[in-house]
């Protein structure tokens, strides 16, 4: 019998039942794994997502500045002088929360986080006041010569996040930024309201925000650690906490893009 004939005969022989059983078992395992990744349906609501996710009247302003490598020192001095002008004005309901240099991630980048107490009305008031200050305007113009690009976002704080506390001593920070699928912010908040309970071991949770103006469906989680080794140990302890893996499984399908940056506070940062 030729080789072609043997192949034809083998093709006609039914496959063993055990193979079918194995395939069914594999399909069942896959279905069980996929079920963890299924995102629960979000029902229509009459309330805006921001009102459901945040119960605070504070507005946070996140500046991301990409600095020319040969101008980092001049840039930081410029921003320090800008902060001093803002602090000298007693009628502004704004304060600097944190100021950082990126050490791992987008290098030659600086982040500055401001808080306005009283909503967007206070944002408008501060802009009007500062735009009439000649020294402030001059510093803004000078700063432009030190930058490659910049981006501004207005954020709200998640209501379930621990109360913001400025840190002392020597710390590093990690900002984990997520771009979510449109329409999934409520689902993200529902899951992280439970997930944050698994991230309280070393007082690591610093702040959690979602965007209002700027790049939309953006989330920023900011964590505080003593050093990189402390970060490693703290994150590994979360995986040993029952339920953390399920929170991750439910939130991963909501993400379109994510990245993290390790930050070091500037000398004039209120949180260190």
TrEMBL record:
Pfam families: NIPSNAP. Residues 60-157, 173-270 form the NIPSNAP domain. InterPro entries: Dimeric_a/b-barrel, NIPSNAP, NipSnap_domain. One of its GO terms (cellular component) is mitochondrion. One of its GO terms (biological process) is mitophagy. It comes from the Eukaryota. Belongs to the NipSnap family. This is NIPSNAP domain-containing protein. It comes from Anopheles maculatus. The lineage of its organism: Eukaryota, Metazoa, Ecdysozoa, Arthropoda, Hexapoda.
């Amino acid at each position: 019998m030729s080789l072609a004939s043997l192949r034809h005969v083998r093709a006609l022989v039914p496959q063993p039942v055990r193979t079918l059983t194995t395939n069914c078992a594999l399909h069942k395992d896959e279905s069980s794994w996929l079920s963890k990744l299924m995102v629960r349906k979000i029902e229509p609501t009459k309330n805006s997502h921001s009102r459901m996710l945040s119960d605070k009247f504070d507005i946070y302003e996140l500046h991301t500045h990409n600095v020319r490598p040969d101008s980092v020192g001049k840039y930081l001095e410029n921003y320090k002088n800008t902060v001093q002008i803002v602090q000298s004005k007693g009628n502004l309901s704004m304060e600097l929360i944190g100021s950082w240099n990126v050490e791992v991630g987008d290098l030659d980048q600086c982040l500055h986080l401001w808080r306005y107490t009283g909503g967007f009305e206070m944002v408008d008031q501060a802009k009007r006041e500062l735009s009439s200050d000649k020294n402030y305007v001059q510093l803004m113009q000078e700063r432009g010569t030190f930058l490659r690009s910049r981006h501004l976002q207005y954020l709200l704080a998640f209501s379930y996040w621990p109360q913001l506390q400025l840190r002392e001593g020597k710390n590093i920070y990690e900002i984990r930024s997520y771009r979510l699928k449109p329409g999934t912010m409520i689902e993200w908040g529902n899951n992280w309201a439970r997930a944050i309970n698994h991230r309280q071991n070393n007082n690591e949770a610093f702040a959690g925000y979602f965007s209002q103006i700027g790049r939309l469906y953006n989330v920023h989680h900011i964590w505080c650690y003593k050093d990189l080794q402390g970060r490693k140990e703290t994150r590994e302890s979360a995986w040993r906490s029952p339920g953390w893996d399920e929170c991750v499984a439910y939130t991963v399908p909501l993400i379109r893009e994510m990245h993290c940056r390790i930050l070091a506070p500037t000398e004039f940062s209120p949180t260190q």
